[in-house]
Amino acid sequence: MAKDKRSKAPPPAAPASAATGTAAAASPSWPPFKPSLPVVDLTPESLVQDKVVVLRSFFPRSLCRDYVSFLRELPLITTPGKPKRGEALRVNDRFQISDTRFANRLWTETGLKEAVLSKDVAQLWGGEVVGLNPNIRIYRYSAGQFFDAHYDDSNSVTLKTEAGAQVPVVTTWTLLLYLTSAADGCVGGETVFYPHDRRSPKEEIAVSLETGMLLLHKHGHDCMLHEGREVTAGEKWVIRTDLCVKR
Ligand SMILES: O=C(O)CCC(=O)C(=O)O
Ligand SMILES: [Fe+2]
């Protein structure tokens, strides 16, 4: 695919307040992080040098189960089948909310902050990481659903700190937290990267789902072409946000 005709992920939706003309949607009562996190020593593991890093067992299996039961009750919306020009075809059910508190909790109450800022990987992120994008996206892919090949954009965002300060940031890496896998009956759904901008099976790097694994991949101008492969049985559940660095 030519770089100038890059297929992008659909843009983040406007906040609920702008979309509906009402007050921003109430934050869900996300389940507590129990047992307390992290449950394992979170050692970032590089899958593609400087581009893809994973943290295995970031969420224990029991917590993934609690989250899937909870997320199932949220008002997920099935994407319309036909993407706008230049946008990737995404066929899944999705819930999206701007939730600063949950983004802060994921960052500070899980061991993620320490793992991301640890000196072995701290230089990867393209600046000083200050937190996660409050734009939280939940995806459910059932049999037949997928996210076609695309690139993720970098976005400018303002982060609110606990102390009330506003910090201008830019997103640099995508964060995907897988809540299900083959162990839970989900077949397919791998996240597949194409390092040379073409969808070549010979060059693909397919990351299999692992329950509780967190994956980070570089996005913006040198994002790798990637896709969420079709799920053929069971359900793939993902929490998506992004790393934010100071701008
Ligand atoms: O679900 C996946 O494996 C990929 C998701 C993705 O590419 C995205 O959220 O931009
Ligand atoms: Fe993506």
Automatic annotation (TrEMBL):
Residues 1-28 are annotated as: Disordered. SMART domains: P4Hc (SM00702). Transmembrane segments: none annotated. One of its GO terms (cellular component) is endoplasmic reticulum. The keyword Lipid metabolism does not apply. Its cofactor is L-ascorbate. Residues 15-28 have a biased composition (Low complexity). PANTHER family: PROLYL 4-HYDROXYLASE ALPHA SUBUNIT (PTHR10869), PROLYL 4-HYDROXYLASE ALPHA SUBUNIT DOMAIN-CONTAINING PROTEIN (PTHR10869:SF236). One of its GO terms (molecular function) is procollagen-proline 4-dioxygenase activity. This is Prolyl 4-hydroxylase 4. It holds the Pfam family 2OG-FeII_Oxy_3. InterPro entries: Oxoglu/Fe-dep_dioxygenase_dom, P4HA-like, Pro_4_hyd_alph, Pro_4_hyd_alph_FE2OG_OXY.
